[in-house]
Design brief:
Elements lengths: L1 E6 L13 E6 L3 H14 L20 H13 L5 E6 L2 E6 L4 H11 L8 E4 L5 H4 L4 E4 L5 H6 L2 E2 L5 H4 L6
Parallel strand pairs: 1-2, 5-6, 6-7
Antiparallel strand pairs: 3-4
Length: about 170
């Protein structure tokens, strides 16, 4: 199946008609806007069982054999190397091995933040792995009991000045 995000609404003149071609007129929202619209329309058709998308600009020409090679490689993968979450208007693609903890550690490494100077705040058991990666973890007041029991601090909104040191600007 082919899903086309018609960025700028220019395809009507070509008369592309088929039950396998789906054209979605879109205001000219740039490449990212057009790609996003195409993905949104694919997500709206789960019954079609579409598992992969190729995103191309209108000024790209590819050898059709590269599509066949790509399809073969993708069919050989035993599992998806990523997860896709669609909650309008956001589409999030995450590597299957990525997680909050890995994200925090990566950001700290790239920005050269010492872990001893990082405070992670969370509210659910799902946050604990990330929070346990640093010495300063904080559960918010309405956090799950599991997290409150393990976090180094529990945030008490009535005592914010006692919890944080504020600097004068």
């Amino acid at each position: 199946e082919v899903f086309i995000s018609d960025n700028g609404k220019t395809l009507k003149e070509y008369g592309l008609t088929s039950d396998k071609i789906h054209i979605f007129p879109n205001k000219n929202a740039g490449g990212a806007g057009g790609f996003t619209r195409g993905l949104i329309e694919i997500f709206r058709c789960p019954e079609k069982g579409i598992t992969h998308a190729l995103l191309m600009d209108d000024d790209v020409v590819i050898d059709t054999s590269s599509l066949l090679r790509t399809a073969v490689i993708l069919s050989l993968l035993k599992e998806k190397p990523y997860q896709v979450f669609y909650k309008p208007p956001l589409i999030t693609v995450v590597h299957k091995e990525a997680g909050k903890k890995e994200g925090v550690l990566h950001i700290c490494k790239v920005l050269a933040f010492p872990l001893e100077q990082v405070l992670i705040v969370g509210n659910s058991q799902k946050d604990w792995e990330m929070m346990s990666a640093v010495p300063h973890s904080c559960a918010v007041m309405n956090a799950e009991p599991f997290l409150k029991d393990r976090a180094r601090y529990t945030l008490n909104p009535d005592r914010l000045p006692a919890f944080f040191r504020f600097r004068k600007l």
